[in-house]
Amino acid sequence: MSEGLAGMVTAARQYFANETKRDVALRGGAGVCIGACSIEMIVDMPGNPVDAAVRVMYMLGLTMMPFRPIPASWVIAVIAAVNELVPWLSRCDESWGLLFVLAVQGYMAVRWSSVTMTLMLSVSALLNYGIYRNGSEFGSFAGSVNLAVLLWLTLFIGVWLRQRRQLNEQRELKRQAENVRHDLQLAMRLHDGMSGELTRMLIVVQEGLDAMDDDDRRRWETVREGIDVTFHELHAVMDFLSDVGCERVETPLMRLAEHIEEVLTAFDRRLHDKGFSGRSMIYGASEAMENPRNRMVIDLLGEIYTNIERYADTDNASYFIGIILSDDRIELTQTNTCARKNRRHDTLGTGNGLRVYQRLIAEQGGSVRYGKDGDTWSLHCMLQLNS
Hints:
Blueprint: H1 2-17, H2 21-43, H3 49-64, H4 69-85, H5 95-107, H6 111-132, H7 141-210, H8 214-242, H9 256-273, E1 278-284, H10 295-311, E2 319-325, E3 329-337, H11 353-363, E4 367-373, E5 376-384
Parallel strand pairs: 1-2
Antiparallel strand pairs: 2-3, 3-5, 4-5
Helix pairs in contact: 2-3, 2-5, 3-4, 4-5, 4-6, 5-7, 6-7, 7-8, 9-10, 10-11
């Protein structure tokens, strides 16, 4: 029983999560009008079958507003016009529903429909006084004119709301265009400032490798590989920033667990070759596929291994990285002993890398905590995965 109820709640959340503001407004407005009509039917019971049928048709029209707003609006408008011309037919009070449908007509920009409907209702209000005079529900000609003015005003309110929405959309498009321009400028600056220099470094290192003996060659081969990897990563960033409005090349999907295992193996081998001791472990399994959200863990691993290489102690202790995987969650724990003095120059790092990942993962509902206790550095990360 509880599982069935939980499933219904989950399905309802997914359904309403996909609704737009317009859908919510249509459902809310129709619900208020249906509630008002239901209370009226309880207080003032239908006097005859025709009166009951008109009220039922009016409520059906309101019920259809979220699904077919234009036809449903005309059903309600025709009922209102007929009630003005033949007031003894039904005592249904369609005032709130009428104002609601006129606002919807103005918002949806159906010009011929909205203008025709408002004109028909205005004429029916004037004819009500012209035909019944003393028996008119408006009491005077000015009363019927006031109703006509209110109908047009409601229509214009809907038009104003539509214009405001379009203005907001234009502002959003302008903001996106500014972001695109910024990304293109950033890609150009990356290319001009770094790509050319990396290329020259690769050429110099390769020329040096060609003139070295085998021992020196093995050491400098690592440098060449690092520059090559950095070069390709930089171009991947530039391609991502500049590939706006173009069809991107679809890459085959890969399971996140497989990619994590490849990254751990490659970085462990790299650190071991440089004299570090340590290990990484994966616990559990996951069928989650790699996507931009899940890939943040891969990128965070690269930052973690870089920090180990820069700050960890190679003489007295080892590093450890443990990852717990499930289909919808990943937890990462990392520890190492810090060297008393940094093994690299301070200029190699700004110290902002982990803070950036902490903010990005927090925006996705996860968490990153890290700190130093004595000589021991520790980090813990948790992120909900997308399948």
